[in-house]
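Please, structure for the following, as tokens.
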Amino acid sequence: GGSGCAGGADVGLERRATAAVQLLALGRFLLSGRPREEVILWVTTSDDPAQSCRALVRALQEGPAFEGYGLEDFLEDAAEPLDRWCLADGLEALSRPELRGCLDMVRRLFADSSGNVRVAIARSVGRVDLELVVSELAEQYLDTLGGSLA
């Protein structure tokens, strides 16, 4: 599919998502879970939670470049299933190469104890390329298996 022009609303969403990442980085610095709760509240109560999840993930993907706080950090800090659902659902915003770059995170979300998180990650990855991820994961497992059998 083609990516259309971003409307004015998207710029506002992008700005809020960037502010959310700054808030998350601050929360980690202050060792406080409160900012993360605020961010999740913003996502879940927004007009379009799915779009907000995607905006947050995009901002987190760019995070390490400008904030030093990225996707892996968010997963580490994700205390609640809702946090991880938000991440899993938003991963659909990533491109195929970007997803390939965070396979370990994808695997951890696939193995999450919360069913909602597993459903969200399957849906997100499926929209990008389920086959790619499954085959890459299978390859990793086979390598591990091969190493232990050799």
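Residues 1-7 have pLDDT under 50 and may be disordered. Residues 60 and 70 are 5 Å apart (CA to CA).
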